[in-house]
Design a protein that fits this description.
By secondary structure, the protein is mainly beta. 3% of the residues lie in helices and 43% in strands. The longest helix is centred in the N-terminal third of the chain and has 4 residues.
């Protein structure tokens, strides 16, 4: 059994930040459970381009409001608490945060925790080491 709190993750290698976002990576590939689980916060007024070519991502919005633009299918979605989106087709997408957004995210395959978005918003596929 694994039990963790976001307080104990804060300030560790599982607490990753970039321009306008922060991801607390609660479960990672090295945990050996087949998925990763993150609490991600997006700063108010920011815009982000993401494209997970190698991962399926499910997102549950807990706090905040914003707009999700599916760039592959030219569809726009308004997001509010209780919204979920699933990137099961590896869709390129743009996220516009009207307010601070806090979301819970699941990735399959799991991320290792060290991935960084490239200029296209893509995470590389990195094999997880058990640990």
């Amino acid at each position: 059994m694994i039990v963790r709190t976001t307080d104990e993750i804060t300030g560790t290698e599982r607490d990753v930040e970039g321009p306008g976002w922060r991801s607390k990576r609660i479960v990672l590939g090295g945990d050996g459970v087949g998925f990763s689980f993150h609490e991600t916060t997006i700063a108010e007024g920011t815009e982000h381009l993401f494209h997970y070519q190698h991962h399926v991502e499910a997102v549950w919005l807990v706090e905040g409001e914003g707009t999700l633009i599916d760039l592959d299918n030219d569809v726009t979605y308004e997001l509010a608490p209780g919204s979920m989106y699933l990137l099961d087709g590896h869709e390129r997408h743009r996220l516009l945060a009207r307010t601070r957004m806090r979301m819970m995210c699941v990735f399959n395959p799991p991320v290792t925790g060290q991935e960084v978005h490239d200029s296209n918003g893509v995470y590389p596929l990195v094999a997880a080491q058990a640990g």
